[in-house]
Fold:
Amino acid sequence: MAIIERPSSEVAVAGGATVGVKPSEALGVFKRPAASTSWRDWIVTVDHKKLGIMYGVAAFFFFIVGGLEAVLIRLQLIAPDGKVLNADQYNQMFTMHATTMVFLFVMPMAAAFANYFVPLQIGARDVAFPRINAFGFWCFLFGGIFLNTSWFLGGAADGGWFMYAPNSSTLFSPSHGIDFWSMGLQITGIASLTGAINLIVTILNMRAPGMKMMRMPIFTWMVLVVQFLLLFAIPVITVALFLLTFQRSFDATFFDVASGADPLLWQHLFWIFGHPEVYILILPSFGIVSEILPVFSKKPLFGYPIVAMSGAAIGFVGWGVWAHHMFASGLGPVSVTVFSLATMAIAVPTGVKIVNWVMTMWGGKLSFTVPMLFSIALVVQFTIGGLSGVTHAVAPSDTQQTDTYYIVAHFHYVLFGGAIFGLFAGFYYWWPKMFRKQLSESLGRWNFWLMVIGMNMTFGPMHMLGLQGQPRRMAVWTEARAGEGFFNLGFWNRISSIGSLVLSLGVLLFIINIVYTHKSKKVAIAPLDPWDGRTLEWMTDSPPKEHNFDSIPTINNLDEFFHRKYAQDATTHEITQVATAEEVLAEMNAHPDEHIHMPSRSYWPILLALALPVIGYGLIYNRVILAVGVAMIVLTMFGWAMEPSTAADDDFDPPAPGDGGGHTKELAPLG
Amino acid sequence: MKSSRRWSNIVKPVVAVSSLVALAGCAKDAPQDTWQPAGPNAKMIDDLQRPIFYIAGIVGVIVFAAVAWAVFRFRDRGQAMPEQTHGKPALEITLTVIPVLILIGVGIPTVGTIFDLAKTDDTEMTINVTGQQWWWEYDYPAVGDNAQVYGISEPIVTSGQLVIPEDTKVLLRVTSRDVIHSYWIPKLNGKKDSVPGRVHLLRMEGSEPGIYAGQCTEFCGLSHAYMRMEAVVLSKADYATWVANQLEPYTSPSADNALALEGEKLYLQQCARCHQVNGLLNPDGTPNVAAPDQYVVSGAAPNLTNLMTRNTFAGASWDLLTPECRDDVWNATSEEFGEKYLAGVSEDCLNQKDLREWLRNAPEKKPMYADPTKLADTGGKYRGMPALGLTEDQINALVAYLLELK
Structure:
């Protein structure tokens, strides 16, 4: 069993002799934190499951923030010449709505699921680099908070989430909003990049024995594809954001036309990141529904290798389509042709997935639980978004549609109807695994239907608005351009705004459902295997122990857990249950692994992450603060580097009692 | 029973919504409708996109039907555990090849149209279009066919409305003076970004006299929502009249119009620093030359020569015509349109309300960076028109003067 952060008191040297090494103790200021049940444990934890929950809670908080921004936008547009927001506030609002939803909700929420479930699905005890994992979470949280403090410090960014130059220069956006934006995204980008490296190493190296790549659960497959996309896409936006920061803070002239620059450079950099980003947002949800549809159809995923490979194909072709965001930007006809055809090509692997989902349900035994409902809605809504996507892969037709509400409709069908519905399917599906209780199915149905109706009411009419010529990002629309008749643009704007309130009500019901489920005594503890699951995460306790599995299973099949519960008669092909989940688990726990090493808690990840926003404030306000931030970085990196992955017994706070036994650095053999 | 009731609950709203959608296709006269081409370029796009929308619709219906059937047919009625099939390669290959074939069918005409729309070698007229925060400038250069065929013997510079002759292949050379904007008249062609430092080419051709609405579609800062434009298509005869009128030499208001004369003086004091009126003389008899580059970040302000021949002002954000007179022009038949448009803005038809509000306090009406106390970041230059602090008497005089500009 591969545990990377094992005690390193013995190091092999060349020649084969082992030399005893005394790991240097943490700097003395911060003694190694010990396990506890208080809130402090969440600060210092490196457990992938706790970090997953923290990612989830923080991302959901930002979902509410981004959702309130969206509701304000729709209230402003409910009537002509809206007065809810002024133009400046409106521009900040749509900039921050998109930024929040993309960078602070969908991406980290996918990271939450990936963190929690990838190690469980591949039969690992943790991720490869647990402290880096914690560091990534704190970078995301502090980056997100830093970004949002701009609201209270002179106004948020107002250039749109695409932040096109030269409108992003200090001449055209004199407030500090864009400085907060570029530094904030830089910090959250560190979270994505470190997380990507961590999960790639984890998935490639730490699978349980027998789990070949083609036996991995499809969610893990999609997460792997996404991590490679992140690994190559985040550096591009990192460079772009640095150029922007240097342009604004140090008078660099990367995008300054008067100095001979071409502002289209920014667009290319942004979309080379931005289009893979779209797949970064959607593929985790594809993975989630590809887990859920088989479970509630009682059939394996139809065409598993094709679904996995089409995900990888999307990951590759996704790099060659970025300029379809720029069909109106003046590219030559040959370039337009290439990107137009590449964009059509990417519809093929995407369509393959939809076909395979439908075929998974075909011939199955379908039960319409709430996670299943969200998954089916994803298939339908994503299809609508995918088909409208094909209409603007057709470049000439896109020159009519781009920057209108038709595009807003398209990507909300893909990202809300697709990505977010997938995440909600995941909440309901995996909730009993994470929190021992099943979310109420009846409240869940209300939650689901209100969200379906709200989502289609909000974004459906936007197709009409866009095709009838209403551009995006307009603080007001005017009656003069709304057209005649009952179904004019005013009508559709009203429907859309009302829909956004229905949608909010649906999300509110989700929160109510959480509170109800955990407060009400009527909701019993969920059974071990509430959905008749098929993959490894169900083959352990709910919630799993810190070390996930008492014994690491050996994998013989795709859908290993299903095959341990069911057997097929060789002659009649009839499938019968041979064991319950409890029996499978009991058998595993009967032979626990002898030594289980778990990584130790650490203060350094949060302290290092805390230094980053200090640098951000320093860049914006004061070079002294900047120096403090840099000093914090240097000191915390030193402390981190010197900290052994598992400390000596006397290095704990509070110190280990007596002979130092009983600490979490090494769990005693169980059983 | 329970499930069938649930089904009717689903079907009803679906039917209701889809019939609404069908009706919406008939929404009347949205001025920026992308499905009502009024020129060959927009028609080319429309001919391409209509079948694609139909194909997408059919594919969608097939997928929805398959999902609905699966949901209906295979729901758990207590049937036995289904066979654990992992796929059927022949079926999967078929279902992959079909979309490939459809997309090849979509791709071939797409490529043809891309190149057709990019053609510029048969251009009959050239107009320079320049975007800046938050209005468009049109410059009709007095060169080539512009001068020889269309009588543009001197450059004409206007704003607010692009005026082009019917059935003429006009090439717009689109650029910007500050940030990126995008030029879009949906009924005449798709959009093209106006990027500072670059000139992009966009074909425009109108088949029928009339007025066509458009809007800046690239987010361009504070007042993006107020950056509108209109394209006017005139018959060739009417176009000649329009050109001749634009080139008529300037004359000061007649002596019996004292108010307008006072307005001209006021204009020279208050407006002429930025806004050019061709032929206007300074008190000392020298030609007045506006110098917007000293006051405005983009270095330009709308040229107001013959302002009242246009129907809009302030980046086409507001009409110069009252709603009734505006409708009269917009709804005119293509035969009557030219005459009504060329009549310009009369005193009776002038939209006094919006014009006066604008003169009273422009940045309050249209969001702009024009607060003189907050110009540190721009080296003291405005982005937009500042409030001039005019008295009501001064506004009366200015309006009287502006009415003479036609």
Observations:
- Residues 258-310+345-402 of chain B form a domain with the Cytochrome Bc1 Complex; Chain D, domain 2 fold (CATH 1.10.760).
- The CA atoms of residues 39 and 203 of chain B lie 10 Å apart.
- The longest strand of chain B covers residues 125-132.
